[in-house]
Amino acid sequence: xxxxxxxxxxxxxxxxxxxxxxxxxxxxxxxxxxxxxxxxxxxxxxxxxxxxxxxxxxxxxxxxxxxxxxxxxxxxxxxxxxxxxxxxxxxxxxxxxxxxxxxxx
Length: 105
What we know:
Blueprint: E1 12-14, E2 19-28, E3 33-42, E4 51-55, H1 62-86, H2 96-104
Antiparallel strand pairs: 1-2, 2-3, 3-4
Protein name: Transposase
InterPro entries: RNaseH-like_sf (IPR012337)
């Protein structure tokens, strides 16, 4: 697929704020299956580059794929911040007693 000369006739455009979203069903050679590919062009002025997201559930539309990725990253940020706040990332032990002391001291 040539992203520099993307044929937008094959893509379905979705109305989203802060950018353009295109979705299409493509065959991924590496996965040997069809995937739902989403091309996101953010129009917020920070970047002019496009971003690609995909789902192996090829029945999902482009907006669903983007929503799942956004939700996933919000959850990952919550876990990361929680670990840092609790100091869980500072302990390198694998012993149960030492970990218990570290978390509960």
